[in-house]
Amino acid sequence: MDSSQFFGISSIAYILAMVAYIAYLVFRNSTLGIIATTITSVGFISQTIAFFIRGKEFYDIGQMGIMRAIPLTNLYESLIFFVWCLILSYLIIEWKYKNRSFGAFITPIAGMALAFIDISGMDKNIHPLIPALQSNWLLAHVTLSFIAYATFAISFATSIMYLAVTTGNKKSGAYIFWTVTLGIFISILVTMGIDFLTFKVVARTSEAFIKSYLFKATFRSASGLIVLFSYAASAVFVYLVWRYGYVLKKLIESFSISPDLLDDLTYKNIAIGFPIFTLGGLIFGAIWADQAWGKYWSWDPKETWSLITWFVYAFYLHARFLRGWRGHKIAIVAVIGFVSTLFTYLGVNLLLSGLHSYGGG
Amino acid sequence: MSNKKENQGIVDRVWSFFSSITLAVVVFSVISLTSIVGTIIEQGADPERNIKLLSKFFGDASPTVFRILDSLGFTNMFHSWWFIALLFVFAANLIICSLDRLPRIWNIVKEPIKPLSIDLLNTMPIKREMVLKGKIDNAKGVIESALNRIGFKANVHLQDNGLQIYAERGRYSRLGVYVTHFSIILILIGAVAGIFFGFNASLNLLEGTTSAVAYMRNGKEIPLGFEIGCNDFEVSFYENSDTPKSYKSWLTILENGRPVKINGKEVTEIDVNSPLRYKGITFYQSSYGFSPTKDSLFKFSVTSNDGKKQDVQLKFGESFNIPGTNIMGKVADFSPALGIDEAGRMFTYAEMMNNPAVLVEFTENGKPKYNQWILKRYPQTWRVPDGMVEFKDLWGAQYTGLQVRKDPGVWIVYLGSLVMAVGLYAAFFMSHRRIWVTLKDEKGSTKVTIAASVNKNKAAFEQKIEKLLGGLHG
Ligand code: HEM
User: Fold this and answer.
1) Residue A284's pLDDT is what?
2) What is the three-state SS of chain A?
3) Is B240 on the interface with A (CB under 8 A)?
4) Which of A179, A225, A265, B376 is most exposed by smallest CB count within 10 Å?
5) Closest residue of B to A301, CA-based?
6) Residue A69 pLDDT exceeds 70
7) Atom 26 of ligand 1, nearest CA residue
8) Which one of B240, B273, B418, B456 makes the best mutation probe of the A interface by having the most chain A beta carbons within 10 Å?
9) Cβ contacts of B246 on chain A, cutoff 8 Å
């Protein structure tokens, strides 16, 4: 069997797990809960196996040693690795907090992402590495950054959920903030999905994809009409999220997830993500830049945005512990942290130029 | 007298200004926001580019806006005086804030755990009680070994009507935050040292040439104190593709015109992720280029059909002989990147030596015999009717682009990074856990009272204690 079959098994498993988690929440039957966890674990194991097989395929082609064989070089692999981190974090949370409610939120994201990667016709081929990318530091940098991104993504989800359950008044700043942010976030995800389906992306690297395809089917389309329509559709969507945001509140409440748990999870994920991001994102990135370009820090946009993200999370930690910020205020900082993270990953390549395009080949 | 008092007032005020967390939060925000501007305005770029960018937002006013931003230093923001000043405020804030709190933390850290009175124990956040069968001595042994199992080394204090066992872990982890802060200072010191005592330059070296200087961005020459020469440069490609696999230069260091051995070798091979270091100066492979001269040499290895082999090198237009025959070959044409289009026509598809090829005209006793394109990357093209002509290289036509750097601060930066990793680990993944177990005789059984405290992640510690208690029953 090759890696794609194992990936297939895991995407089916995650979708089935979603059904099981929802059934579990509806019927409150512990056997269903155990089934849901088992299916998720099977999916996770299968994905792990697939990852190793792909590593082996990569190793056979690259012939550059075990350390260079970790498949994390293009968008396809990055997304799959991201899903893997997400499920791993979820399983840890389920085990630690003895709470399965989040499963119904996380597994559909994972399953849909994998299924989507499959049907979008994204380039799955294994490409050999150009010289600047042949570095163990880079590998450690990318891997750890993605793990940190996954924890930040979870803290984003939990802080949005926190804001959703604790706000009700449509006119309040916090309510407007979370609904608009979520609305924009989902619009961006959907438009990215449209790009994938439209272009059947053949770009090798995420960099190249972002530069040449991202939003080209919508916001950056050649046709002015489509651009106009895209913006209008997103605006309407954001409005709808704002109008019907209370549904999410009802949903979360019906799953009996408490605000305190959400707040605690937000903090825990940042507390794990922050040191990993510092080490992997900033320090290892700097060491790699030092080895490859002879400069550990050059204030290029990608580096600067990583630093900004780092400052936002440092802000979160200090405001929380030393200024005693709680509730809406601190949740909003956590949301801004992830927006900054996303911009570091996507926005910089899309909107700003920089040295990192050197890695794009 | 009064003068001194006033001075103290100022010192105190400056101190409390710099030790405030509010300042830290403000500085975090200001650095972040200005940095955002610094990533939007292209740094150190042609004014035209930024004016074009600005015109998207400001229209006709963009040249004015640009002039304002330029005079405020936003076009080279990360080196502007006010951004550097901001970093200094950040550093001062960090140092003074840490110094301000350190004594208190240090008092806790240097004091090992002590036995406590009942009153104090009652104030602890974690409390449990249970009764164990058997005498105190028995219970003592059980509890000591249980504590040992979870990594605590037990101390025993005798008190009236029983005893107290107490233990702690991770006392020094309380310093983690300060170690983290200190590491940031170290990194900043390293960066400043690099700026003041180092340089960042570049150098293009044609194969076969040497240089005693490198060049700054503004064209200024930086003497190296020795000479560096490029013996050869090679790009290699993945099979059947133009994806580069490696860029390699072979460099030699010369002192007073004589080659110096580095790691026992006169010629050092460098590639993108492995530079050459000599006397504090580091040479990185950063780019390359193609600029042939009439002195560039074609290098061949020629073998006749009966196995006689000879290495030859010649300039464009010169001839060589296939050993043991009367056949002569002459380089008549060259392409750095020979491609073939759909119609079978040959063309040059790149300016670089992606797929170097030579057209060799063969003659026998001066009479034309045949011509053949010989491609460096394709051995099947080396075979000619009268032997093998391996095209090894066109030498002296490519230059290697080196990044030349001296940074005496980089080790401080690396040390700071290491310290930061340690500090963050202690700050986030370790905690100071203390536990006191009081044993009292109660009608032949032993009453066990547990009190514990931890400076963070209380839930995890409680779980651990539950586990410990569970173990005691069994
Ligand atoms: C970006 C730079 C900084 C980083 C990465 C950083 C990192 C940290 C971390 C990881 C903690 C521990 C938080 C926790 O327990 O969750 C902390 C606490 C703290 N930070 Fe910072 N910090 C930075 C800048 C500053 C600055 C500029 C100040 C100066 C006011 C400061 C003052 C403090 C204080 C007073 C504490 C609490 C110490 C304690 O608990 O005793 N930090 N910092």
Assistant:
1) 94
2) CCHHHHHHHHHHHHHHHHHHHHHHHHHCCHHHHHHHHHHHHHHHHHHHHHHHHHHHHHHHHHCCCHHHHCCCCCHHHHHHHHHHHHHHHHHHHHHHHCCCCCHHHHHHHHHHHHHHHHHCCCCCCCCCCCHHHCCHHHHHHHHHHHHHHHHHHHHHHHHHHHHHHHCCCCCCHHHHHHHHHHHHHHHHHHHHHHHHHHHCCCCCCHHHHHHHCCCCCCCCCCCHHHHHHHHHHHHHHHHHHHHCCHHHHHHHHHCCCCHHHHHHHHHHHHHHHHHHHHHHHHHHHHHHHHHHHCCCCCCCHHHHHHHHHHHHHHHHHHHHHCCCCCHHHHHHHHHHHHHHHHHHHHHHHHHCCCHHHHHHC
3) no
4) A225
5) B39
6) no
7) B94
8) B273
9) 131, 134
Average pLDDT (B251-256) is 90
- CA distances for B74 relative to A126, A309, B42, B65, B457, angstroms: 42, 20, 9, 11, 44
Tell me the chain A residues in contact with residue B241 when contact means C-beta distances shorter than 8 Å. 128
Nearest CA to ligand 1 atom 17: B177
- Which of B23, B86, B107, B177 to mutate to test ligand 1, by most ligand atoms within 8 A of the CB atom? B177
For ligand 1, the distance from its centroid to the CA atom of residue B185, given in whole angstroms, is 13
* pLDDT at residue A357, rounded to an integer: 38
ipTM for the predicted complex comes to 0.82
Taking 60 as the threshold, does the pLDDT of residue B4 lie above it?
Answer: no
Between the CA of residue B189 and those of A41, A117, A134, A308, A310, what are the distances in Å? 48, 46, 30, 20, 20
- Residue whose CA lies nearest to ligand 1 atom number 15: B427
- What pLDDT is stored for residue B2 in this prediction? 45
Among protein residues, the one with the nearest Cα to ligand 1's atom 24 is B94
Mean pLDDT of B63-74: 87
Q: Which residues of B374-400 are buried (b: 16+ CB within 10 A; e: fewer)?
A: bbbbeeebbebebbbbbbebbbbbbbb
Q: Please write the tens of the pLDDT for every residue from B165-187.
A: 999 999 999 999 999 999 999 99
Q: What percent of chain B has pLDDT over 90?
A: 24
Q: Whose CA is nearest to atom 25 of ligand 1?
A: B94
User: Which DSSP category does B72 fall into?
Assistant: T
Q: Do B243 and A315 touch (CB under 8 A)?
A: no
- For chain A, give the mean pLDDT: 81
C-beta of residue B408 within 8 angstroms of C-beta of residue B200? no
Taking the CA atoms of residue B136, residue B142, residue B147 and residue B149 in that order, the dihedral angle to the nearest 10 degrees is: 170
Out of B43, B273, B404, whose CB is closest to A135?
Answer: B273
Q: What's the mean pLDDT in B98-112?
A: 89
Radius of gyration (C-alpha) of chain A in whole angstroms: 20
Instruction: Supply the DSSP symbol for B152.
Output: P
Q: Tokens standing for A161?
A: 């959920």
Residue A57 vs residue B48, higher pLDDT = B48
Average pLDDT score over residue span B182-200: 91
Put simply, the answer to whether B272 touches A131 (Cβ < 8 Å) is yes
Query: What length is written for chain B?
Result: 474
Q: Which residue of B has its CA nearest to A288?
A: B273
CA distance A288 to A317: 28
pLDDT tens profile A136-179: 787 788 889 888 988 998 899 899 999 999 988 888 899 999 99
Write down the residue that tokens 């040499």 correspond to.
B297
B246 to A134: CB separation less than 8 angstroms, yes or no: yes
Q: Number of A to B CB contacts under 8 A, please give it.
A: 108
pLDDT band of residue A62 (cuts 50, 70, 90) is low
